[in-house]
TrEMBL record:
<dbReference type="InterPro" id="IPR027471">
    <property type="entry name" value="YbeD-like_sf"/>
</dbReference>
<protein>
    <submittedName>
        <fullName>DUF493 family protein</fullName>
    </submittedName>
</protein>
<dbReference type="Pfam" id="PF04359">
    <property type="entry name" value="DUF493"/>
</dbReference>
<dbReference type="InterPro" id="IPR007454">
    <property type="entry name" value="UPF0250_YbeD-like"/>
</dbReference>
């Protein structure tokens, strides 16, 4: 089993054991500062009434993106992470 699939399997188990759904969940990402990358992150969360905050690094090379959004269950959280994983240069925190 790959490290990523093992990570998501553990995350799902932890979320199910420790979280009461629906819940307000915080996603945090770091992306290269570009309109395209930031827009791609925002597009993932467009459908759920998400509150999105962006903060550009001191050097201007990276932008942190924090998203507060209500999630229905562990599977929907993992689905969002998997969608974000496809964005070039993204780091999930």
């Amino acid at each position: 089993m790959s490290d990523k699939s093992e990570f998501y399997k553990k995350l799902k188990k932890t979320l199910k054991e420790e979280t009461k759904f629906p819940t307000k969940y915080l996603f945090k990402f770091i992306v290269p500062t570009s309109d395209k990358a930031i827009q791609q992150v925002e597009n993932i969360f467009n459908d759920g009434g998400a509150v999105i905050k962006k903060n550009v690094s001191k050097t201007g090379k990276f932008t942190s993106v924090s998203i507060h959004v209500v999630m229905k269950n562990a599977d929907t959280i993992i689905e969002k992470y998997l969608q974000a994983e496809k964005i070039e240069g993204i780091i999930s925190l």
